[in-house]
Design goal:
alpha/beta, four-stranded parallel β-sheet, two-stranded antiparallel sheet, about 40% helix, globular
Length: about 160
């Protein structure tokens, strides 16, 4: 049964990647990253059937998991393949960090909403994504301890 579920997830990821490639150029490394991350693991319960659509979905804290299309565009323009370290400002569900973890040696992600970060960390553990380090803080304060970073991705809302 578990093998059948894994094959279905692979099929869903592959269909999502086909849809993404119609909208944004995915190099082979980015395509492989999207195929290897289980997006359904990052969406709230009850939304698993919508995980592979190119839509943003609601998560805790009145926030949203970015659409796969947004994540693909940000990843494409960030060009993280082979980077040593990336700083992500705004972890949210952790999906973007998971994609980046397949392309970079280390991902550092900051989230201000504790319950979101707890869920993201639990998902990282379940999905065995061991190269993502997280911090509960205001992303506008940065994370100087591990600086400098080769890339910085701003996937949060800023205030004045």
């Amino acid at each position: 049964m578990n093998n059948l579920l894994n094959r279905k997830a692979i099929s869903n990821e592959a269909q999502m990647v086909r849809e993404l490639k119609k909208e944004v150029p995915l190099n082979s490394a980015n395509e492989k990253a999207f195929l290897s991350v289980n997006r359904a693991a990052f969406v709230p319960r009850g939304f698993e059937n919508k995980a592979y659509r190119l839509d943003a979905l609601p998560i805790k804290g009145n926030q949203f998991i970015s659409s796969p299309l947004t994540v693909a565009k940000m990843t494409h323009y960030l060009d993280p393949e082979g980077c040593d370290s990336v700083l992500e400002l705004g972890c949210g569900s952790g999906y973007q960090a998971a994609i980046l973890s397949k392309l970079c040696r280390r991902v550092f992600s900051i989230e201000r909403i504790g319950s979101l970060l707890d869920e993201a960390n639990n998902t990282f553990k379940r999905e065995r994504l061991n190269n993502i380090m997280t911090k509960h803080d205001d992303a506008q304060l940065g994370w100087s301890r591990y600086a400098p970073y080769e890339r910085i991705l701003f996937s949060a809302t800023a205030t004045k």
